[in-house]
Amino acid sequence: MAEVYNWQIGREMEFPYAESRPEKQWGAVFDINKCIACQTCTMSCKTTWTHGEGQEHMFWNNVETKPYGGHPIGWDTEILDRLGTQNWGSDGVYEGDTIFETNDVDWDDMLIDDELGNFHGEDIEGYRPDDQDWAHPNIGEDEPAGESFESDTHIAEEEETHPMWFFYLPRVCNHCSFAACAGGCPVQAAYKRNEDGIVLIDEDSCQAAQECVRACPYGKSVYNPAESKSQKCVGCYPKVEQGMVPQCFENCLGKIRQHGWVNPPEEADPDNPIDFMVHEAEVALPLYPQLGLEPNVYYVPPINVPTDYLFQMFGPGVEEAKETYKAARRGDEEHRKLRGLLHLMGSTEWRIEQFEVTDEEAIGYDGSGSTVARVPMEEPQYQREHFDAQNNAYRLDVT
Ligand code: SF4
Ligand code: SF4
Ligand code: SF4
């Protein structure tokens, strides 16, 4: 029986293959509160990786407006509908089925050492988006949910939720610990690298079965009709191998993204930025953990969006994550380390593997211990005299 332990759902679950964790796991934290949907990330990936024939509909990085946007269209409502009831116990254990359990399959028949003919990855719950679903990369942009209100209404920053709301959700492949694309591939062309946990498709082996496209619930494996191959985000492995962050991270204008290694909770290192946000501060949460893939992109939830919507999207812990984030932004001493780390996000093209926060600054170190980023805890400010006698001019700005 291929039983694996998925810490994000707090229990063992069925999976096509036996559990095998890589030496290191590619990971990321995105702070949704800072994303401005400029799509610079989208275009930096597009111009780097998917500008060829047959890739016109591919956006390995996309940014969609929630709750109504999505690429491919409706990817999350499609899979959530198929999943059935999704209850979480008060102990944080998921009580519903994952996409590997919905169809009640005996995965014994398809372990890796079995005959390929025995393989039945199509039993992973999923669907294949059609051409129209891929044709509208930014549908629903800026479409709000909730109640309208008078334009001069003042909403305090700390107010729990806004009556009218939307938020931007940037998405890349999650380089899942239990990758459905790899689990569904009948010829094992989709695989997970042992050295960094990046999930790739070997195009020489790909037989165009498109089972990875059907199995990936996040819509991040995409078919290239010109090449007759399925393709997906490669985690920018050539940069990652050099200790750098991926293209869409380096070019993020809002500095909302942090790349690094993520460990399982029992091996968490509090001075590793991703581990700290995921396991220590518990301010960053996985996207739809109930699907069962243990995705490795984590999100700081948007603080002014209704919690019930966010609970479905990020699972238990969302309320606490919002409160912790708000406290760090307020400057509470208890969350000073998190505040410093939030300052460090997006500050360098090098991967920060360790960090520390001193009285004056937050400092990031690479894998060899060299300093790669220093950011002041307080931005120095100089207020000009209101009247500039030299130029006989009044100044109102602060620099
Ligand atoms: S997000 Fe989809 S394509 Fe990426 S590793 Fe997970 S299952 Fe595979
Ligand atoms: S990590 Fe690299 S390949 Fe993946 S979406 Fe970002 S830029 Fe594209
Ligand atoms: S570049 Fe950054 S801020 Fe701009 S849309 Fe992408 S994730 Fe959001």
TrEMBL record:
UniProt cofactor(s) = [3Fe-4S] cluster; [4Fe-4S] cluster
Q: Tell me the Pfam families matching this sequence.
A: Fer4_11
**PANTHER family from the entry?**
NITRATE REDUCTASE BETA SUBUNIT, RESPIRATORY NITRATE REDUCTASE 1 BETA CHAIN
PROSITE patterns found in the cross-reference section: 4FE4S_FER_2
GO annotation, cellular component aspect? membrane
Where the protein is mainly located, per its record?
other
Q: Which organism is it from?
A: Natronorubrum halalkaliphilum
Indicate where this protein resides in the cell. Cell envelope
| Keyword Signal in record | no
Supply the alphabetized keyword list. Answer: 4Fe-4S, Electron transport, Iron, Iron-sulfur, Metal-binding, Repeat, Transport
InterPro entries from the UniProt entry: 4Fe4S_Fe-S-bd (IPR017896)
Q: Which GO terms describe its molecular function?
A: 4 iron, 4 sulfur cluster binding; electron transfer activity; metal ion binding
Give the protein name, as stated in the record: Dehydrogenase
- Enumerate the Gene Ontology biological process terms: anaerobic respiration
Domain called 4Fe-4S ferredoxin-type: residue spans: 26-55, 197-226
- Organism domain of life: Archaea
Q: Does the keyword Metal-binding apply?
A: yes
